[in-house]
């Protein structure tokens, strides 16, 4: 949660006047102590995520996360949205499928998600490129911000795209602020 990439994401979003709360799953915290194990199944992280949301206890909350965090958030979003506990969902670099395994989709719950959702994704993300994602049957409540030539961390290759990582972060932050304004006022 305090990697340079996550810190940069949080700072640029906060720079748009939004409060940002971060937490890390237990398996990630264990990695700080040298216990490098693969992540558990996303379903097993749901109680941990729900507890973090409950601890925040804010109104007009948009939940989300980067990669696995966004996936788990998307799995709890409709329940929390239905209870009036959240206003929306933000996923940064959603893992639509494992890299090099486009047939193992993680999208079934996204086909009917009712929660207003913004997914910010790089067009060359190995977890789901723009060309792949446009073929998926996803709910109309999902908006996309496609960041040209961005990878899973939204970073472009400047020499190819003409964009820098800072450019993409600014674009993403502005889109997040506009999304928050729309979903928190309705």
User: Please, what is the CATH homologous superfamily?
Assistant: Alpha/Beta hydrolase fold, catalytic domain
SS strand fraction = 5-15%
Mean pLDDT: 94
Q: Count of DSSP E strands?
A: 4
Would you identify the regions where 5 or more consecutive residues have pLDDT less than 50? none
What would CATH call the architecture? 3-Layer(aba) Sandwich
What's the overall geometry? Answer: globular
CATH topology (fold) name: Rossmann fold
Give the strand order of the largest sheet, numbering strands 1, 2, ... along the chain. 1-2-3-4
Structural class: alpha/beta
What is the rounded distance between the termini?
30 Å
Number of domains: 1
Radius of gyration: 16 Å
Can you walk me through this structure?
The chain has a single domain (4-185), classed as Rossmann fold, CATH 3.40.50. It has a four-stranded parallel beta sheet with strand order 1-2-3-4, with helices on both faces. Strand 1 (62-66), helix 4 (68-82) and strand 2 form a beta-alpha-beta unit. The protein has helices at 4-14, 26-31, 46-56, 68-82, 130-133, 158-161, 165-185, and strands spanning 62-66, 88-92, 117-122, 142-147. It is of the alpha/beta class. It is built from seven helices and four strands.
């Amino acid at each position: 949660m305090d990697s340079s990439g996550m810190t940069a994401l949080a700072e640029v979003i906060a720079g748009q006047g939004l409060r940002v709360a971060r937490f890390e799953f237990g398996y990630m915290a264990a990695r700080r102590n040298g216990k490098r194990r693969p992540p558990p199944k996303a379903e097993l992280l749901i109680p941990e995520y729900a507890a973090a949301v409950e601890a925040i206890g804010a109104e007009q909350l948009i939940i989300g996360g980067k990669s696995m965090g966004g996936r788990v958030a998307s799995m709890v979003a409709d329940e929390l949205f239905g209870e009036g506990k959240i206003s929306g969902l933000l996923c940064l670099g959603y893992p639509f499928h494992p890299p090099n395994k486009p047939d193992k989709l993680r999208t079934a719950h996204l086909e009917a998600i009712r929660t207003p959702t913004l997914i910010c994704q790089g067009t060359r993300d190995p977890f789901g490129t723009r060309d792949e994602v446009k073929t998926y049957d996803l709910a109309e409540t999902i908006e996309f911000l496609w960041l040209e030539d961005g990878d899973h961390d939204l970073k472009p290759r400047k020499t190819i795209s003409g964009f820098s990582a800072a450019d993409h972060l600014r674009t993403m932050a502005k889109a997040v602020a506009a999304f928050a304004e729309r979903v928190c006022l309705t």
